[in-house]
Design goal:
By secondary structure, the chain is of the alpha+beta class. The protein has 9 helices and 9 strands. It has helices at 3-56, 123-158, 160-171, 188-239, 244-274, 286-296, 298-303, 321-337, 386-395; strands at residues 68-75, 83-91, 96-109, 112-121, 281-285, 307-312, 316-320, 344-349, 354-358. The strands form 3 sheets. A 4-stranded antiparallel sheet has the order 1-4-3-2. Strands 6-8-9 form a 3-stranded mixed sheet, covered by helices on one side. The longest helix has 54 residues, at 3-56. The two termini are 34 Å apart.
Amino acid sequence: MKLFEIYNRISLFTIAIIILITGIVYYYTVSVILTHQIDKELITEENEIFNYVRLNHNLPQVFRSSDQQIYFTPIHNEPINRQFINTTFWNAKEKENESGRGLISSVVVNNNRYKIRIIESKVETEVLIRIIFLITITLLALIIIILFIINRLLIKKLWKPFYIILQQLKQFNLTDKNNITSTNSEIEEFKELNNTVTFMSSRVKDDYQNLKNFIDNASHELLTPIAVINSKLDILIQTEDFSQRQSELLSDVYETVARLSKLNRSMLLLSKIENNLITDNLPINIKDCIELSLIQFNELFLNQLITVTTDLEEVTLTMSKSLFDVLMNNLLSNAVRHNTYGGQIIISLNKSELVIKNTGPCGPLDSNQIFQRFKKSAESEGNGLGLTISQQICTN
């Protein structure tokens, strides 16, 4: 999950919780305020009754309105302390009970005590509370939606430099001549990130270039000493008679020089491929090239009693013929070297892929290691660059 999505969810969840709590507090606060207002109206009505009794020495006429009802009931006990109650209000028009607020008190008229019960309807108050609450919730919901949209648009825009840097890092390649470019941003952290990444990529490419130049120069410089060693060995063999032990030592030297020469050629070839110095690209028939390579390896197949099965379609690619020959030579060599006596090689070719399978004494090779330079098994006679070169050929 992306960072700004997590931020959006957390912020919106927090806002929703705050709004919920605020809404509940707001609802009860408004309810208490309006109830207090009704209580004041009930007290006012009670005072009017007291004033009327004081002036007229009689109870006022009992009446019932659409939102207020007053009852007088004779009592013979002690005076009743004023108290407010939540009760019901009978709506004669609607013929149903409604929520109401009541005041209970008492009054003395001509030495007779009466219980006063004043009830006022709370319907309008509750409707008003609901309307205020709904308006508030609606406004808050609109605020949440607006904040959500602003967050998505604004945060996405703010994080745009980061994603540009990330995309450049994904496409970064040591062998590519293009460097990571600077990204304009008003955010200090992104500026620092961009400067750090730019400096790091430049330094890595410089180090890689220096290392590659060293390998290239070393490989070129090794050509002459290797040629001189081979020449001297040839002269030495032709001018002297050697014992069995000396012949074995010379054979070991020849083999070591041959491996060194092969390693040097592989390193030079790998350097040329990485630097795109091989440009003899032409349309070639892949099927014909594979069949020609199989003919060249036919003697090895016969020596190992390896059965070769092919399923080849006509495919034409524009690439270097010499590089494809190197590719097939590496893949077929490995298919023979890592096969069993009397084993099998299966080759299939179509417009989307070339697949070479072989039977072997062990399980599949580790795909995380086989393309690493100089990575090879203990029993391998190669230099560990064959599959690396093959990967570079396929990549380029």
